[in-house]
Amino acid sequence: MQGTRCYDSLKKRRQLPNKSLLLAVFAACVGGTFQYGYNISVINAPTMPKYIQNFINQTWMQRYQTNISQGGLTLLWSTIVSMFTLGGLIGASVGGTLSVKLGRRGTLLANNAFSLTAALLMGLSSTVGSFELLVIGRLLSGMNAGIALCVQPLYLGEIAPTALRGAMGMGTSVFITGGILTGQVMGLKEILGKEEYWPILLSTTCIPAFLQLLILPWFPESPRYLLIDKGDEEGCKKALRQLHGLADSGDALEDIEKEKNNLVGFQAKKPWELFSDRSLRWQLLTIILLNIAQQLNGINAIYFYADYVFRQSGIPMDKIPYATVGTGACECITALTCGMLIECLGRKVLIMGGYVLMSICCVFFTLTLTFQDYSPVFPYLSMVCIFAFILSFGLGPGGVTNILTTELFTQNARPAAFMIAGSVNWLSFFLISMVFPFIVTGLQQYCFLVFLAVCSLVVTYIFFVVPETKNKTFVEIQTQMELELYSYQRPSEMFLKQTFSVMHNTYT
Is residue 209 located within the same domain as residue 279? Predict the structure, then answer.
């Protein structure tokens, strides 16, 4: 039976996508979450910290005729890196509002202004001798990434047919990992990894922005946004015909009309209104916990330890950048695999399975790091654990989290939900970047026991609370969540009624 369902799901997936839909996904992602992954990996290229710190020192010398202190140099470098996180938080906090006012596609197009300005500032920083332009450029790059992470999954989830929503939503994860891999490759010394090229490397973020500006205007706004938010029925029908094809647009229109009828009289919610809405309590708690776990599950620690493990395994220092590219390729391949499996296995199985495998990897990685010096075999086992952990993360948590944020909310609450999810994700990113060095210093290899606890707790929560959303409309998912909430509340209500009844009988 399970095999039949998987076959039917795969058969639907092969029939439904057309070129227009796939090109729309590419256009949205190449200037969206691709930029996020690219900007993370480019600044962390093996030689980039050294080149930029040399530039800061030279600029300081020209201005003040003295070398900058080591503490000041470290502070400026940390500021340049962390500005991306601050910008991401700002972008996430305004992305949902912009998506309501400008539309999903309109926001993605306008968002390129931040990317192009950032590329210009960072590219000119060396020429004009101003490291302040790097700070501003990284802030603007972060704002671009924050808005993209908020709005792009929204757009993908709303243009995709129900049977393909998971696969199309995986575009977010695929292009993040593709951006990371591209940044790692571009940072190699054979391409733009030489010292004289670092301003050009940082300014290459303009290329995906130009691609999106050239391609995305040829594709329509989200059909759901057109009909539900703007009341443009003709525009919605035209968009559906272009994205889904004439034969399949009727069912999609009927689904959107049902959701619109359920939301008659409701306005787009503000983020703070979600916290006071009892019917959205479990959905909101779910996306908050999953977005926190996405940053605190140990993936950052794995990348931190990768360089050490590669060195312990005997890989020459000049070859380690190529091994690092291998980790990026590993995560990218896993994201693609997840995209092919998600409509067959479902969201719940993939995200739970990913966290279970990550928990197992935490145990083995702790053991291999502990006994690293006992045998030459253990460094290689540690390498296996690194790649297995990255594969596990890409298999579920890396891609499914954003899809669930799309699917657990209806049209009037979805932009606000993405604002909350994005803000939580960026705050967690900032927190782990600040606290992680202290965790590693204090616990060393045993820090993975902390991440083991995080992964195990998330698995437990998903098993008991998160529903399977595969092949369900947004209205059906909302109804299921309300029924589950009612089932959780009902026993407590019955207990209270029985208690009051006993007290009344006793009193009378």
Answer: no
Longest CA span, the chain: 92
**CB contact at 8 A, 403 and 153:** yes
Do 106 and 196 fall within a single domain?
yes
Cα distance between residue 124 and residue 130, in whole Å: 8
Query: 377 in a domain, yes or no?
Result: yes
Q: How many distinct structural domains can be found in the chain?
A: 2
* pLDDT band (50, 70, 90) for residue 204: very high
CB 430 within 8 A of CB 283: no
pTM for this model (two decimals): 0.84
Is 255 contained in some domain? no
Dihedral (C-alpha) 427, 433, 434, 435: value to the nearest 10 degrees? 100
CATH number at residue 400: 1.20.1250.20
DSSP characters for 296-324? HSSHHHHHHHHHHHHHHTT--GGGHHHHH
pLDDT in tens, 437-479: 677 778 777 888 888 999 999 999 999 888 888 878 877 877 7
Angular region, 397: left φ>0, alpha ψ -120 to 50, beta rest: alpha
d(CA 293, CA 344): 25
What is the three-state SS of 127-166? HHCCCHHHHHHHHHHHHHHHHHHHHHHHHHHHHCCHHHHH
Find, among 127, 172, 159, the residue nearest to 16 by Cα: 159
Q: Which segment of 53-62, 196-205, 498-507 scores lowest on mean pLDDT?
A: 498-507
Inside any domain, residue 248? no
CB 179 within 8 A of CB 35: yes
Domain hosting residue 442, numbered range: 274-508
What is the reported pLDDT for 78?
Answer: 83
Sign of CA dihedral 64, 69, 73, 75: negative
57/181 same-domain check = yes
